[in-house]
Amino acid sequence: MRTEPAVDLLQIREQLLELRRQLLSFEQEQAARLAAVAAPHRLSARNLLHFVAFHRHNHHRPHQPSLQQALRQRGLSTLAGCEPHLLASLNSLIAVVHCLCGTPVDPGEAGYDPDTAPGIEPPASFEQGHALLRRHSERLLGSGRAVMVTLPAAATHDPSLIPELVNAGMDVARINCAHDTPAVWAALAGQVRAAAQAQQRPCRIAMDLAGPKLRTGPLPALPGVVAARPDRDRYGRLLQPARILALPQGTAPPADCDPQLVLLPVVGNSWRQLDSGDRLRSRDASGRWRELVVDGRLENGVLLHCRQHCRFVAGLVFRQEGGPVRLEVAALPECPGELLLKQGERLRLSGGPITGSADPGQAPARVSCSLPEVLADLEAGQRVLFDDGKIGAVVVAPAGGGPGAELEVELEIVQARPKGSRLRADKGINLPDTNLKIPALTAKDRDDLALACRHADLVNYSFVRSEADVACLHQALAQQENPGGGVVLKIETQQAFLNLPRLLLAAMAEPMPLGVMIARGDLAVECGWDALSAIQEEILRVCAAAHVPCIWATEVLDTMAHHGTPTRPEITDAAMGSRAEALMLNKGANITETVRTLRRIAHHSGITRSDHSTEQADRLVSCLCF
Question: Is 327 helix (H, G, I), strand (E, B) or coil?
C-alpha cells in the first residue's frame, strides 16, 4: 500500500492546525479592539478577525505549496465561500482530515470548545453566520435583497413619480445631500413616507452626506461664441444652409420664431438697409472667409443664411459686398472656462482662486482646488487624477512657501487624449497615493446630519477613510436628538478599501445597524479600472465575514435608466451584483421600469455570495491593513 497520500494528509492536518492556532492567536492579539465592539456585533467581529488572520497566514508562505490547492486536489473544502462561518468550517475540515488520517481528534487542540478551553466562546456556526447576515440586512435595509433608488429633485414637482417607484419595488429611497437644498430633501422624504403609507409597503430613506469631495474651482470665462452649422448628408453634401436671425441687441425674437433659427445679436440698425439677395463677407472666429446671404427683412431683424459652418464672436464685422452696410456682432454671453491639457505639459494646482481673463497660450495653466488644505499633503511623484480619471498627472513640485503663502503644486500631465483633454470647473479630483489629513465629516455634513436624523432611516457616510472618521461620525450622531437608524460606510477610496476591516470594527463599537456601499465610481478611479473587479469581490467577502450587508452601487442599469434599454454588459453586472444585499440605481427618465427590470434580473439570476476565489483576489485580501 502506498503511504504517500497519508503523509500528505498528515502535512495538511498540521497546516490546518497551525492555521487554526493563528486564527485564535490573532483574536487574542486583538482582544482590546474586540472588547470595544458592541454586544450585537461581537460574534461578527470575531469572525471578521478570523477572516483577516486566515488570509494573512495563507499568503505569508511563499516557498510552500498552496494549502488550498492541496485540499482541492483531494476533494476537500478549500474554505472558499465560508466567510460568514470561517472558524466553524475550519474546525469541521480538521475533523474530516483527522478521520482520513486515522487519528482521533484531540479535544485539547480544538481551542473553541468551552468545556475544554474555558474563556473562549464558540465561533459563529454555519446557521448563525448566514442568519446574522440576513438579520443585519433586514435591520438596515428592511429586506434581504433590496433595491435602492436615487431620487431626483424633479420628483418634488411630479407627485406620481415616487408612488410609482414604491409600487415598482423600491425598498430604499436615496437622497444625495451633495445636491439641491434641505427644503428639497425634506420634501422628498415626506413624499416617500406618504407613498409608503398609502401603499402599505415599507420603504426606507437613506441620506448621503456630501463629504469632502475634491473638485476643480472656477476658471476664467471664455468669450461667447454663436455657431451656425448647415445640415449635410453623410457624404458632406449640403441639405440646408444654416439659417440666422440677426436682431438688434436686447430685442426679443418674434413669438412664432422658428426654433431652428440661430439668433444673432447685432449692433445698431444698419441691417434695415439690407435687401433680399445682398451678400456680406468676413473672416469668422476660426479665421476662414464666410459669406452671409440676406433672405429677407422682418420688422425687428433680418433673415440670413450661410452655406458653411460659421462661428460668430463679439465685435466681428461683416461688410456688404459693394455697399456701405456693416453688420457688427454685439456682446455675447460668456462661455464656461476650460483648459486644454496635453500629455507632457505642466499644470499648477492652486489653493487660491484663478482670476483674470482666459489665456489659452498661458503656460503653465492654473486651476484651483475646492479644498486647498489638501495641497500640503501632496508629495513628489504622487498621482493627481481629474474628471473621473480622464486626465492624469503626477506631482513634480510639492507645495512650498512660508506661513500665509498661497499653496500651489506643480503637476505634469501624463495621461490625456492624443489631441488634448479639456478640463472644466467642478470636475472631480482624486488623490489615490496621498494620505489625506482632512476629516471625512465636514461642517456642512454636521448641519445636514441633523436633518438626516429627523427624516432618514440610514446615513450614507461619504469618503470615510480611517477609524478616526468613524469615531467622528459616532460623536456627531450622539449629539442629535434622534440618533437612531443605521450607518452605511461608502468605500470609494483606495485608503478606505485597505482599511476596511478596521473601519468595520470601529463602526461596530455602536450597536446601530451597519452597512457598506461599494461606490464603484470613485473607487475605480482611485484603484484603477483593471483592479475594480477584484476589489469589489473582496469587499463582498470582507462584508460577508463581518455579517455586514453590502450595497452594489454606481451605474447599475444606467443606460436603461436614461435611454430605456439596457446593454448586455449591464444585465450581467446587475446579475452579478445580486450577490450583494442591495443594488443601487441612479436617477433617469426611465427609472420606474428600470426598478422592475432589476427586480426580475435579481429574481432569475439565482446568484448568491461567491463560493470560490481567485489567487489575485486572495492576494488583495492579504494586503488589507490591520
Answer: strand
